[in-house]
Amino acid sequence: MATSDDICLRAAGISRSFGGRQVLQDIDLDIQKSEIFGLLGPSGAGKTTLVKLFAGIDEATTGSVDLLGTRLPKLSMLQRIGYMAQSDALYMELSARENLQFFGELMGLGGQALKRRMNHVVELVGLGEHLRKPVSSYSGGMKRRLSLAIALIHEPEVLILDEPTVGIDPVMRQSIWDELRQIRAAGATIIVTTHVMDEADKCDRLGMVRDGRLIAVGTPEGLKQDTGSHTIEEAFLYYGGVRP
Amino acid sequence: MRIRALVIRIIRQFLRDKRTLALLIVAPLLVLSLMYLVFDGDDYVPKLGTVDLPDAVVQQLEKGSVDLHSYPNTAEADAALQAQDIDGYLSLDGTQPHLKLEGSEPSKNRAVQMLVARTFSDLTSDRAQAGTAGMPKIEPKVDYLHGGEDMTTFDSLGPIFIGVFAFFFVFLIAGVSFLKERTSGTLERLLATPIRRWEIVVGYMVGFGIFMGIQAVLIATYCIHVLGLMMDGSLGLVLLVTLLLAAAALSLGMLLSTLANTEFQMIQFIPIVIVPQIFFSGLFDLDTMSPWISWLSHIMPLTYGSEALKNIMLRGEGWSGIASDTYVLIGISAVFIAANVLALRKYRKI
Ligand SMILES: Nc1ncnc2c1ncn2[C@@H]1O[C@H](COP(=O)(O)OP(=O)(O)OP(=O)(O)O)[C@@H](O)[C@H]1O
Ligand SMILES: [Mg+2]
What we know:
The complex is a heterodimer of chains A (244) and B (350). Chain A is α/β, with parallel strands linked by helices and 244 residues long. Chain A has helices spanning 47-55, 96-106, 111-125, 140-152, 170-185, 197-202, 220-227, 232-239, and strands at residues 7-18, 21-32, 36-40, 62-67, 70-71, 81-84, 158-162, 189-194, 205-210, 213-218. In chain A, a hairpin with a 2-residue loop joins strand 1 and strand 2 (21-32). Chain B folds into two domains: 47-144, abc type-2 transporter like fold (3-Layer(aba) Sandwich); 153-346, no CATH class. Chain B has helices at 2-16, 18-39, 55-63, 74-82, 106-131, 153-183, 186-190, 197-226, 235-257, 263-267, 269-283, 291-296, 301-313, 319-343, and strands at residues 47-51, 67-71, 88-93, 96-101.
């Protein structure tokens, strides 16, 4: 059997084009269960487009994505995914609490369970004291943290985070990564795109995306060795064609 | 469950957004009050000049409501006409009465013509009476099937205005709200949850429906009880028709917002979608229009809405008088709603 039990996501030959313009080309990728998989690549490489296909929000022009053994896109799978978009999609007039409650209810939570989860995720991202303020008065980092809390609200099996830590200070970033590791330890799979190199180092495995192609996949250590670099940054530059 | 969450969210957003709330609720009342002041003014008293008229004629003229100015010759009367001091003047061409009108305002023309015609018909009937003493004066008695002598322009246009404003403000607000959902990225985020496309559309219909209901009650009761708009039928039916009209406006607004990328582009739909509907809604007589143009009116929700409202309010008709219009409105909304569910496919196929 090709789909073994410990594969979370399998992408087979996916391409995506927008009106004739090819944005992703022939991507094959397996992501294991309970790993933190990082997608790294320059701006415009196609990372966001790729994770949208992984989340089943968008559909590949050709090729297929299977998540937890189910062919995407499928409505019921959205229940098992926590998605955090690159740009904060929040209701500005509403408070953080009301935003959380809304998305929690859409995910089928209610009553005590919803309250418990809300308290938990709010604690996690450190928004406790700002819960009742309208989101329009939030700073960029606070909005980012709220978006993360929303993605976590229903304890998803697969977390897909598009640049989750942009605009978040190092202390908070540290605690968010600690939490991501805990979530992974609990059995969830995390797919994250990033620009931050020291974050890339924290991933179990990395995928390098450039011009819509997946040009390398491996552990941070492995990629450094393959390219003869000391840091991920150097490896990134190597794959980017900047460094020989 | 998901629909309920969406409805609660829409209500909360609405209550925070005082401006939009005011646009939906206060603006129609304000505009309707202005309409009332414009159309419900006192009857116009024509300003008529006279040149060398027999006393009998002048006396007869003075019996009507008129502002008479006398001039020694037609040259001076012409000057006064030129300066718009008078709306017209009456002189004698030998024995032939001659009326000259300023002419640029039809309503004033008509007022003057009616006054002069009435004066001369009264004069001749007086003479006839004097000639054949004892014969009773024959005067036609006028009855009205609908309305009445005291029905004002505002009364006859009121039902149309109620429909137009219910339609216009809901169209704009629903369109802009849904546009915002799309441009702010929250629609994409919404579609990353297991909510179904039809649940989104129904949630919007219900959430906005609550405020549309409040708006309909306010507009109708304000027009009828405060502005004294003529009302011969049942308030319940008026509310039903207003709500159906608002539902059509809401679903159309949502649908067209998918073709717009900014709020300004949403505004650009007003001359295309709203203004023609107002023209065809009964403000102007369609019977004299060429058939292919009046055919256009059959695809416009406002045509059916204002026809139904006129039937209820002016002609005092019950359900049977508006049933067909109501069904058409329901059909139009159903088509728009289905189109919205389909249009959301653009953002998520499932
Ligand atoms: N809906 C769309 N229609 C047309 N082109 C698109 C669309 N979405 C993305 N693209 C194009 O696809 C390419 C990849 O975009 P994408 O957002 O996936 O990049 P990214 O790797 O996430 O970049 P960044 O790091 O800046 O977020 C870009 O050139 C972009 O113009
Ligand atoms: Mg991106």
